[in-house]
Design a protein that fits this description.
Low-confidence stretches: none
Structural class: mainly alpha
Distance between the termini: 73 Å
Number of strands: 0
Radius of gyration: 25 Å
Strand content: under 5%
Order of helices and strands: HH
Shape: rod-shaped
Mean pLDDT: 86
Number of helices: 2
Length: 59
């Protein structure tokens, strides 16, 4: 195993680099999706608040 790692050092480094880039892109994909869900929820809350204020007559 040690001999295999020494012979293919560049290939293993490159593979780990690609795996790292993939994991980072997956993280940002789910982070952006999560932030979009939070933004949609916030906008819905604001819409309902405005609607309730119009019904009550406070707005």
């Amino acid at each position: 195993m040690k001999k295999l790692l020494l012979e293919n050092d560049g290939f293993i480094s490159f593979s780990l680099y690609i795996v790292l880039i993939y994991l980072i892109s997956v993280y940002f994909h789910f982070y952006n999706r999560y932030m979009m869900v939070i933004e949609i929820r916030t906008n819905l809350i604001l819409i309902y608040e405005n609607y309730i204020n119009k019904i009550i007559g406070a707005g």
